[in-house]
Every structure is written in structure tokens, then in C-alpha cells.
UniProtKB/TrEMBL annotation:
The organism's place on the tree of life at top rank: Bacteria
Source species of the chain: Leifsonia shinshuensis
Keywords linked to the UniProt accession: DNA-binding, Transcription, Transcription regulation
Regions that span the bilayer: none
DNA-binding region ranges: 36-55
GO molecular function, one term: DNA-binding transcription factor activity
Name of the featured protein: AcrR family transcriptional regulator
Database matches in InterPro entries: DNA-bd_HTH_TetR-type_CS, Homeodomain-like_sf, HTH-type_TetR-like_transc_reg, HTH_TetR
Statement: the UniProt record of this protein carries the keyword Transcription: yes
Length: 200
């Protein structure tokens, strides 16, 4: 079966997934610098033209087409909830849907293996940072309505920045340990408690 024939039998989303999977696997096997678009195409069974119809760069294929988002249902529950703020806030961010935690861990290992990939992924977090900050502000308003709005806004921004750092930690830890599943919010909470860090 030729590359073109193989690609033509897939849906667009299946082709995208195949390219992403090939890019992630190759980076984890060979290292970011050793991987070329040609190698990704060969592994995915697509032509270069098909690759560039889906992704502009090798980096984009490794990072993936779907960025992090906000779980809207959880956000509504989060705003009116009470209890430890930080572990719950960690669950606000919805990572791209994948078939299995192993696939997410593989992507985190690939992204965490190279500073440029990590920087690009963190840029994607900034696209939802304002929304997260507003959700955090509403939760803080619900919990402590007497706090002035300026302070509440700064607290929400600080918490959003802490969340960004936690997601960087998630990728770096998955890369360093070779974990087959991402670090869970419960484990993050456990580590913070062990340090004596209040979970707010």
C-alpha cells in the first residue's frame, strides 16, 4: 500500500492522529533534534504534502492540534464549591482527549524533553489563562465576598500563574521519570501538603 493510498483511506482526524502519534513516538525514541518531517511522514504513512496540510512544523505535530481547554461543567461546580482551592483548580484545565493515559504521558515526555517544545506548550496555556483567572476570581468572590476586588483579581492571577507552573512540573516530571500516566492532581496535593504548603 502506498503512502498516498494509505492516507486517502483515513478521515482527516485519523490522519492528524497518525501524524501526531508518529511525531511523539519518534521524539521519545530518537530525541527531538534527530527527528525530521520525512521520518514522521514515513512512520505515519503520509506524504509531505499531507503532513503540511495538517501541521506547519514538526513542533506542531509533536505538541498536537488540540490545546488545553477549560472543563466548563467542572468550572461551574468549582465556582460554588468550598474546600482546598489549589487541587480543585488543577482540575479546571482539560487536557486534550486521548485514547489512554499512556498516550498523554508519551506526549508529555516528548514535550518535556526539549525546552522549545515546552515553551510552545506553555504559550498555549496563556490562551486560556484569562478564562481561568476569571473563574478563580469568581470562586474567591464566593468564598470571601468582603475582599476588595483589586486584591481578589491579583489573587486570581497569582493562582493562575501557580497553575501554569504545576503544568510545567507535570510535563517535566513525566519526562524525567518516564511515567506511563500523568501525575494526578491528588499526587500534586500530597506533595504540596508534605512541604507544608497550604492548599488554600
Amino acid at each position: 500500500m502506498s503512502t498516498v493510498d494509505g492516507a486517502s483511506r483515513r478521515t482527516r482526524s485519523q490522519t492528524t492522529a497518525a501524524i501526531e502519534s508518529a511525531a511523539v513516538a519518534l521524539v521519545n525514541e530518537l530525541g527531538y533534534d534527530a527527528v525530521t518531517v520525512d521520518m514522521i511522514c514515513e512512520r505515519a504513512g503520509v506524504s509531505q504534502r499531507t503532513f503540511f496540510n495538517h501541521f506547519k512544523t514538526k513542533d506542531a505535530a509533536v505538541i498536537g492540534s488540540a490545546g488545553p481547554g477549560v472543563d466548563q461543567q467542572f468550572a461551574r461546580e468549582f465556582i460554588v464549591a468550598h474546600g482546598p482551592l489549589l487541587p480543585d483548580a488543577f482540575r479546571l484545565v482539560q487536557l486534550p482527549q486521548v485514547v489512554a493515559p499512556q498516550e498523554m504521558a508519551a506526549r508529555l515526555r516528548a514535550v518535556g524533553s526539549h525546552p522549545e517544545l515546552m515553551a510552545r506548550q506553555m504559550q498555549r496555556f496563556t490562551l486560556i489563562e484569562a478564562e481561568i483567572t476569571d473563574i478563580l476570581r469568581l470562586r474567591l468572590l464566593n468564598e470571601n465576598p468582603e475582599t476588595d476586588e483589586t486584591t481578589r483579581q491579583e489573587q486570581a492571577k497569582l493562582l493562575a500563574s501557580i497553575l501554569a507552573g504545576l503544568f510545567r512540573y507535570l510535563a517535566e516530571t513525566t519526562t524525567r521519570t518516564g511515567a506511563t500516566a500523568p501525575v494526578s492532581p491528588d499526587r500534586v496535593a500530597e506533595l504540596l501538603r508534605g512541604l507544608g504548603v497550604p492548599l488554600i
